[in-house]
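Can't paste images in this forum, so I'm doing it all in text. The chain is below; anyone willing to post the predicted C-alpha cells underneath?
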Amino acid sequence: MKLNESQAKSCFGNSRFQRASGLSIFLGIVVVVFCVPCSDPWVSAQVTDDIVYEATWESLDSRATPNWFQDAKFGIFIHWGLYSVPAWSPKGTYAEWYWHAKDGLPRKHAAAVARSEAVKEFHSRVYGEDFGYEDFRPLFTCELFNPEQWANIFSRSGARYVVLTSKHHDGYCLWPSAEASQSFGTAWNSVESGPHRDLVGDLTRAVRAEGLKMGLYYSIWDWFNPFWPEIEHPYAGKKDESPEGAAGRKKYIHEVMYPQFKELVEKYQPALIFSDGDWWMDDDKWETRPLLAWLYNNAPNKDEVVINDRWGKVRGKHGGYFTTEYGAGFDDPEVLWEENRGIGMSFGFNREESFEDYNSAEHLILMLVDTVSRGGNLLLDVGPTSDGRIPVIMEERLAEIGAWLEINGEAIYGSRRWVKDAQWSAGARPEFTKEDHHTGSALTESTIHPKPGNASREALFTSKGSTLYSLCPGWPVGKTLVIRDVMPSAATDVSLLGLQKKLAWKRVDNSIEIDLTNIGINDLPCDYVFTFKLTDIKPHSTED
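Text version of the structure:
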C-alpha cells in the first residue's frame, strides 16, 4: 500500500518515521546528523534532521507522497518533439513513435508490423527515402510557441499541474542537454537545433507564473542512442549478455541518463517526474533505485517532488503513484494512481485523426469524474504542432472542462473516494475488455449509453469528510433522485452545485430521496454531469 503524506502522518504507530515541523521524530527522539557510508555519489547523502532513504524499494516506498498530488486530481500532459513535424501515424496508434515505426524493429504482433509498414510508406511518399529522422530538426521551428498563452490555456482548463515531455524515446531533448548531443554525435536538443530555445525552461516559468505545478516526463530509454548496444534492443529477439553489451548499457546509463536526470532536477526542480521507457528491463539493470535515493535525499525539490512507477518492470508495484495508459485505472482504494491518455487516440499530434477521433467535452468530463470517483488522477494529453500551437479543437475541449470545473470543482479538488465509487441502476452489470477501456466505450456504456437490459452508473461519488458529492452523468429521470445506503442527520443539507438554493429531501429507509420538482431546465448550471452535495452524511453500508 502506498500512503499519501497525511495518511503516513496518521499512521505513526505503525511507521518508523514521522515528519513534524521539519524534524524527523522516532519515538519522540530527534534524529541526529548522519550519513550513508557509500562511495557512489548517487546513493550517499549527508542529511540533517531528516530521513535518509536507501536504494531499496522498501525504503523508497516508505516515503509519503506529497499531498498536493492527490488533491490536484487533474493535470495536462504534453507530447512535443521532433515527431511533431511528421505528426502522422495510422488512426488509433501513437504518432510520437514515428521514428521507431520507420527505422526500428517492430514488435512481433500484427498491429505493430502494420503500423511500421504504413509509416514507412508515408515517409517515403512525403519526405523521400534519403530523408532521415534527424532531418526533421530544422523543421521543428516552434516559431508560434507562446509559453504564457499555453500556461493560460492550462490554467483555464482547471488543471492543477502540467507535465511536459522533456525527452521522449527518440532521445531528442527540449532543454540544452550536452549529453544528448555528445552521445548522438550531433546537435540533439532544442537549443542547439530546431527552435534554438530552452523549451523546458520557457514553459516551466510560464506554468509556475499561473500558479500551477510543473512536472517533467523523462524517458530513461533512448531507442537509437549510439552508446546503446544495438543487439540489446528489446525487439531484436535476443539481448547481448556479453561484457561488451553490459558495458555499452552502463555507458548510456552513467554518461547520459544519470547526468540528464540530475540536470533536469537541479535546473528546473519539477514538482513531478514521469519516468517512461522502462518496460522491458528490470530496475537492477536500469539502476534506477540509486537515482531515486539521490532524488529523495539530495535534490533541491526533494520535499515536493512526486514520482510515478515506471522505473524498470515495477509498474503497479513500486513508486510514488501507479499509472495506467488508455486503461481502466486501479480498483484498490489504498492505491494512489493516475490515468493518462490523449484527447484523441495519440499522445503526439496525429494529422491522420479527424474530428470524430477526438473525445467530446462530455466524455472527457465523464472520464475525469469516473477517475476521481475511483481514487485516481487524470493526466490528459495535448499534442502541440511543430510550429508551437495547441490545436484549436484541443484548446476548446480544455476550455469546456474548465467551465465545468468552475461550477463543480468543489466535488473534484481535494476530494477522496467514498466507501463505494458509484450507485448502479437495476439490470445486468456489463463486463468490459481492455480494448473497451482503451477506446472509451466502457465509460459511455456504463453511464450515459447503456445497452438494453444492462445496468448503468446513475451516480458517481466523491467525498470530503462527512460531505458526499453525487455526480450524475445525466439529469435524473423523474422528479426525485434517490441516493441509497446513506444515513443523514438533522443537520444534513442537500444542494445542486451551481444552483443557489437548498433542495428538499426526506429519508426513506436507508436512502435519501431528493425532491427535484422545483428545478426547471433553465435552472441547470451546466450541460452534463450534475453534482448534488449532501452534508453531514454517513454511509449506511458498503454494499450496493
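Residues 68-411 form a domain with the TIM Barrel fold (CATH 3.20.20.80). The first helix runs from residue 5 to 10.
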